[in-house]
Design a protein that fits this description.
CATH topology of the largest domain: Immunoglobulin-like
Oligomer: single chain
Number of helices: 1
Strand content: 35-45%
Order of helices and strands: EEEEEEEEEEEEEEEEEEEH
Distance between the termini: 171 Å
Shape: rod-shaped
CATH architecture of the largest domain: Sandwich
Number of domains: 3
Radius of gyration: 43 Å
CATH class of the largest domain: Mainly Beta
Largest sheet: 5 strands, antiparallel
Helix content: 10-25%
Length: about 260
């Protein structure tokens, strides 16, 4: 009959019978335990409106160090599709900065016995375009119905849209007229407007949403029909010529009469 006794680093096997027992030699046993399970989290809200956040994780028992990985899809295994962010770190927090987008993170704990993968987390960064200011080079009032809208650059923008309405714009709805979309420049030329008041805004777009500029008003005051204005101008010129000839004729007659009297 045999019985085995185990200690932390050795075990001894002994044999016994009814009259006594005899001990075997001792052998060393090296017990290697992989890192224990642990949990990854972050302080990012969902969606996160800030480019800066911190990932943190609980301590993995027996872990010597950690490596942080990221990917565009959930991380179930560590393979060529994942990207290493930090290698063999010993702390349990790590600050990160990311632009607009969706990111997945996971941590691998390592020791001499093996490795342990944490859960993965999803961080969605959603940063709206930065604020910006709209203006124009139109005079007040504008007399030809042509001018240029100009605005400062919006940070993080992908494209701009221009809208116009007949009164001050306080909200974006279907009553506004969309002048143009998908602009990447910060100027837009307007022409051919008749006399009226025009209210303009510009909207900056990106993957996270949109930001609206200030609202400006352009007052256009011009002849309703330029052709009529040209005709009237011609009549006025003709009238001036006729009056001038008439006045000259009167003066000439008076001079002739005076000469006869003398």
């Amino acid at each position: 009959m045999f019985q085995v006794y185990l200690w932390t680093s050795l075990q001894e096997l002994f044999k016994y019978n009814g009259t006594g027992n005899t001990f075997s030699n001792s052998i060393p046993v090296n017990v290697r335990v992989p890192p224990a399970a642990f949990t990854l989290s972050s302080d990012a809200v969902y969606p996160d409106p800030d480019v800066n956040f911190t990932v943190s994780w609980t301590v993995s028992t027996d872990a010597n160090n950690y490596t942080i990985y990221t990917c565009a899809t959930p991380i179930m295994v560590i393979n060529g599709s994942v990207q290493e962010i930090a290698h063999q770190i010993t702390m349990t927090t790590w600050p990160l900065t990311r632009a607009n987008g969706d990111y997945y993170f996971a941590i691998m704990a390592y020791n001499n016995a093996g490795e342990r993968l944490s859960n993965y987390i999803h961080v969605a960064v959603r940063i709206l375009p930065g604020s910006f200011t709209l203006s124009s080079n139109a005079s007040n009032p504008d007399t030809d119905g042509s001018f240029t809208l100009t605005w400062t650059n919006s940070t993080g923008v992908v494209s701009y849209s221009v809208y116009v309405y007949g009164s001050y714009i306080t909200q974006i709805n279907g009553s506004l007229t969309n002048v143009t979309d998908s602009l990447t420049s910060t100027t837009f030329d307007i022409s051919g407007l008749n006399s009226s008041m025009y209210y303009y805004i510009v909207i900056a777009h990106n993957q996270a949403g949109q930001t609206v500029s200030n609202c400006i008003v352009i007052t256009v005051l011009r002849a309703t029909n330029p052709a009529i204005g040209t005709i009237l101008s011609g009549y006025v010129t003709l009238a001036c010529v006729v009056l001038g000839i008439g006045a000259l004729a009167i003066i000439t007659c008076r001079k002739t009469r005076l000469m006869r009297l003398s």
